[in-house]
Write a structure and sequence with these properties.
InterPro entries: Aspartic_peptidase_A1 (IPR001461), Aspartic_peptidase_AS (IPR001969), PEPTIDASE_A1 (IPR033121), Peptidase_aspartic_dom_sf (IPR021109), SAP-like (IPR033876). Helix content is about 15%, strand content about 35%. The chain is mainly beta and about 500 residues long. The strands form seven sheets. It has a six-stranded mixed barrel with strand order 5-6-11-7-10-9. The protein has a four-stranded antiparallel β-sheet with strand order 18-17-23-24. A four-stranded antiparallel β-sheet has the order 21-22-26-25. The longest helix is centred in the C-terminal third of the chain and has 16 residues. It binds 2-acetamido-2-deoxy-beta-D-glucopyranose (NAG) (7 copies).
Length: about 500
């Protein structure tokens, strides 16, 4: 997989206040220099900084590892459970050819010999394969780890020496899904064990796609960041009963047009359950093929075999009359409404030739893709699941509760700069009921998003993908190569723990 060179903003701003730890997560905006967003922290802010780096989309946090602290940028991933840092001697970081192949240098790396508190736990103990076939492997080590101003002593993490992406990953899932043969207390366990938070839970607010940053709050809920009642939902109980990932019972998706017409697609049309994984480490969202077929034919979206993703008419972004939103339901009282501007990504250059049968002039990447591509790519054996990534999560306020095996879910109050933090108590038996603000303060006026991206770097790797389609003309192939980097912008990075069989 190749990734587009880009600029990544890492915004640091941390605070520990009683048993709540909060910091901002910054979004990597491909190819665009972005200014730093204002700090949301209440105490102990850090200077903002801009890091020139590579990003495949996603949300990044800045942490410190070791003594003295080394600054590292990590991808925030609710879909995996290990924290891994990129070693200074990692193959990708020391080999220009690999950097050209994967299209990314390393952002910042960790050098254990420069940390007096580093300890080796298990040489060669770590290897993870993500759904996009990206891999990372190396040793298990431990060292001091600071996030949002809270320092965890001797946190076990992976020290990666073979990688295909230029930042580490901060997995925030259940320890049962760690890649280690012997499970260990991971960052969420240690946050609670070392007394930083009372309840093993965090609230994720990715915020509007057109905004530079969102935030994560460990051990608390911010009632200014959502609208209405926080719905408390039990995690979907997997066969066997051990919770290994953040999955919800998913009941339907409804396509609702601006004129009131709606089309509801219940998951009951499937012949199997398709629980939804809430995964911040995945850029797009994936629904079972039978559901996407209905949505695609209603909206005129077309699958582009060269890009291996569905494309949709960009005009939906600018035409209020035909604009739509998708309502995702998880229970009779829990529905998240995702507006059109979160679902249609204007990432392809104007020169990109739309696929055959595509009638509109300008194609955009659709934020909803089919899980069938995972089976087609041979990454997983089964595709009876739903994966709700950033294109869904940005519209939601999500409380991930590892203590009570619950998810708190509400419609996000976008661009909120106010903050009212409720601490989650140590001795509760459930997430509390909580009420957010009455309504979204601002209203949306559709405007075309025009985000100029640098061209791809021409290339080897993905050429093979395009090449598999014998029918493509040379001109079209060349264009495909040009957008390969852009495709990577929407690339994904998932570690679904025990949910899926990863080949
Ligand atoms: C780490 O980042 C902080 C805050 O941005 C900065 O003050 C410090 O100098 C950095 N440390 C190193 C070793 O770069
Ligand atoms: C949130 O802020 C961004 C950036 O200023 C803006 O483009 C967007 O329209 C805002 N969202 C809402 C819902 O007002
Ligand atoms: C569930 O976890 C328990 C304790 O870790 C283990 O003994 C059991 O085998 C697990 N069950 C399944 C189905 O994985
Ligand atoms: C999921 O939701 C459906 C429809 O409401 C319901 O019939 C089913 O029992 C639920 N499954 C679980 C595991 O909660
Ligand atoms: C998904 O399908 C596979 C085979 O088609 C089956 O073995 C598995 O149990 C299914 N998973 C769920 C959650 O229904
Ligand atoms: C509403 O808009 C959709 C999409 O433009 C269209 O298919 C449908 O016929 C419209 N319904 C009404 C009642 O106008
Ligand atoms: C979709 O959600 C919005 C906001 O919650 C709501 O106003 C609307 O009625 C819902 N539409 C459908 C078809 O469920």
């Amino acid at each position: 997989m190749r990734l587009l060179s880009a600029v990544l903003l890492a915004l640091v701003s941390g605070a520990v206040s009683q048993n709540v730890v909060q910091f901002n997560v910054a979004k990597g905006l491909p190819g665009v220099h972005v200014g730093a967003a204002p700090s949301l922290s209440r105490r102990g802010t850090y200077p903002e900084e801009l890091i020139n780096s590579i990003s495949g989309g996603g949300y990044y946090v800045q942490v410190q590892v070791g003594t003295p602290p080394q600054n590292l940028t990590m991808l925030l991933d609710t879909g995996s459970s290990d924290a891994w840092v990129l070693g200074h001697d990692a193959d990708l970081c020391t080999d220009r050819n690999l950097q050209d192949l994967y299209g990314m240098p390393c952002t910042d790396t960790y050098n254990p010999s420069k940390s007096s508190t580093n300890k080796m736990i298990k040489p060669d103990g770590f290897k993870i394969v993500y759904l996009d076939r990206g891999t990372a492997s190396g040793d298990y080590i431990s060292d001091h780890f600071t996030i949002g101003g809270a320092t965890l002593e001797s946190l076990q993490m992976a020290y990666v020496t073979k990688a295909v992406r230029g930042t580490g990953v901060l997995g925030l899932g259940f320890s049962i899904s760690e890649r280690a043969s012997t499970k260990y207390p991971n960052i969420m366990d240690q946050m609670a064990d070392q007394g930083h938070i009372g309840c093993k839970a965090y609230s994720l607010y990715l915020n509007d796609r057109r905004t530079d940053s969102g935030s994560i709050l460990f051990g608390g809920i911010d009632t200014d960041k959502f609208i209405g009642e926080l719905q408390v939902l039990p995690l979907y109980t997997p066969p066997g009963g051990n919770y290994s990932s953040f999955e919800l019972n998913f009941t339907s998706v409804a396509l609702a047009y601006a004129n009131g017409t709606q089309l509801s697609i219940p998951t009951s049309i499937l012949d199997h359950p398709a629980p939804a994984v809430l995964d911040s480490g995945t850029t797009l969202s994936y629904l079972p093929d039978k559901m996407t077929q209905t949505i695609y034919s209603a909206l005129g979206a077309i699958y582009d075999p060269d890009l291996r993703m569905a494309l949709i008419d960009c005009a939906y972004l600018t035409s209020p009359a035909s604009s739509f939103h998708l309502n995702f339901s998880f229970s009779p009282t829990s529905t998240i409404s995702v507006p059109v501007w979160e679902l249609i990504l204007d990432l392809l250059p104007a020169s990109y030739p739309p696929p055959p049968h595509f009638t509109s002039r300008k194609a955009c990447v659709f934020g909803i893709q089919s899980t069938a591509i995972f089976s087609d790519a041979g990454t997983v054996k089964q595709s009876n699941f739903t994966l709700l990534g950033d294109t869904f999560l940005r519209s939601a306020y999500v409380v991930y509760d590892l203590t009570h095996y619950q998810i708190g879910l509400a419609q996000a109050n976008l661009n909120s700069s106010a903050s009212t933090v409720v601490e989650l108590p140590h001795d509760a038996t459930s997430l509390p009921s909580a009420t957010g603000v009455a309504a979204q303060q601002t209203t949306f006026t559709p405007t075309p998003t025009s985000r100029a991206l640098g061209g791809g770097r021409g290339g080897s790797g993905e050429g093979a993908v395009a090449g598999r389609n014998g029918a493509s003309s040379t001109a079209r192939l060349r264009s495909v190569w040009e957008v390969v980097g852009i495709v990577a912008v929407t690339g994904f990075m998932v570690g679904l723990g025990g949910v899926l069989v990863i080949l």
